[in-house]
Amino acid sequence: MLQSKERLPKNPRPKEWLASELSQQYIADYKPFNFVDGEGVRCSLYVSGCKFACPGCYNKAAQNFHYGVPYTQDLEDAIIKDLGESYCQGLTLLGGEPFLNTQVCIKLVKRIRQEFGHSKDVWSWSGYRWDELLRDSDDKLELLSLIDVLVDDRFMLAKKDLTLQFRGSSNQRIINVPASLKAGRIVLWDRLLK
Ligand code: SF4
């Protein structure tokens, strides 16, 4: 059956949506030490604001750029402290849309690299596809260059599959970011089970 246009996520033109115009630097939630947002024990930061408007979005409240509380230095210090636990593998950015909140995400990931080098990994979810991010604004490319793993693309209700690892729909991919940037093509995360 054909889907009507209203039942599909939005498709931005390159650089149509910019964090510098949209982000309020608000945080919807912070969850330390969880097991579901990527590999291993992770600290998850949910940033506020997303314009893709995917039908069936798992976190609709966080589509609002004013949802939640402002990002603060105290929260950043708490995240760094939590990441310092030896059993914690890394940080996960999700939302909302991390690539429309680059002011917060770039600052935090740079601090993580400063404090921990690459001994902690950084995952990010995004509604943008890999090829869209490569054609978009400099801040999006900068964030991409700082992370290890990207789960890309919108959530598509028609392709929903709850058996997939770390993804909600089968169009989404788990991408090894440094390897993909180096190769000039998408290299999938090599511990993908399904
Ligand atoms: S990209 Fe993610 S956060 Fe944004 S509307 Fe779609 S499912 Fe929701």
Automatic annotation (TrEMBL):
It is an enzyme of class 1 (oxidoreductase). Pfam families: Fer4_12. This is Anaerobic ribonucleoside-triphosphate reductase-activating protein. Keywords: 4Fe-4S, Iron, Iron-sulfur, Metal-binding, Oxidoreductase, S-adenosyl-L-methionine. Belongs to the organic radical-activating enzymes family. One of its GO terms (molecular function) is 4 iron, 4 sulfur cluster binding. Its EC number is 1.97.1.-. Its cofactor is [4Fe-4S] cluster. Activation of anaerobic ribonucleoside-triphosphate reductase under anaerobic conditions by generation of an organic free radical, using S-adenosylmethionine and reduced flavodoxin as cosubstrates to produce 5'-deoxy-adenosine. It comes from Liquorilactobacillus ghanensis DSM 18630.
